[in-house]
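In full, the data.
>
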Amino acid sequence: MSREAHVRFDGSGEGKLLPATLHSQVGGGCWLWGVEHLLTIAAFGRRCGLSVSALRFYAECGLVVPVAVDDATGYRYYSEGQVAEASLVKRLRATEMPVEQIGRLLAADRAGRAWLFEAHAAGLEEHLEALRRSVGEVRGWLVTGEGSDPDHGWRVTAGALLAALGQVAFAVPGQGGRPELAGVLVEVRDGSLRMVATDSYRLAVRDLVVDEGAGELRALVGSSGLDELRLACSHARDTSVWLRQGTAGGTLTAAVDGQVVELGGAADGFPDYEQLLGGLPAGDRAVTARRPLVEAMAAVSSATASLTLRAGALEVAGDDILQSLPASWDGPPRQLLVNPGFVGEALAGLVGPDVVIEVSDALRPVVLRSADSGTFSVWTMPVRPSGA
């Protein structure tokens, strides 16, 4: 098209006029000079990284409309000022935003644009999380084999799972302990996940509320499985973890952030702790501040500490300490011996400012739990007095 050629803007309201010299108006249209300041659709597409077909589609949708169209040839022309907005449309489409939403975003002011995009981004995050779960589910199913059901599993938050496992891990026996106890038992109980650890002298139980789940789980997670899970979740504590186990007590796997970790296998040798707990008599209860009790246990340098419970007080005594802590106690005066290290580790895993202590007699397990939450409890055996 020559410099002198005229381009007719068809007057339909599509697009906007550039600052230019109006030559004349005929039949509701406008004649423009200055064609050399406009860009052809191909040149405009190169400037903003869009194909000709994409620009035609966006024009049909009313997103990026040419400022002028030659009535004779149908050639479309764009202005330099449209490059930024066309580039924005391109980026928005790359986020899979529908054209209708893009139209509303382009018509909004600056604050409105930001709000609309954040709403779209939140939807993308939810979709991405769903995709990750699906990928993890399939990977977990492939790892556990065709005998497992991909629709069965339990979903928990990575951070919550790690915290729960960490709370009970202190009770796992060290090297040289019984092999059937060398890990944390993970099982389903009454619609929640339960984590259990014991070294025969103390028992830690943590119930974890799950986001969703179905099916059975019962497996012993050893130290190597715990380490791998911590590593997999180290940068994804807010993401979801899907726990699954193959049929007939197969491998327990955790799918997290697209990675599948093998946690452990069958827990056939783990003791029936529920039968043991069910046979314990109900004890009397004391409530005291957790932090002072932690400090008192840490101050005991001897192998045993004496706990004396009486109305209004809990007395902690050792070879080099005698301290009375305020406490409520609803039973008769009672004294027992405990391992201060065992009690200190149990108290460290509890949450909240107060601890509940349940005691039935001097030779039966002492129960420690948070006053505000009953989802984590520790049973620790007292020390048998000399001559008892």
User: Anything to note?
Assistant: The longest helix spans residues 110-144.
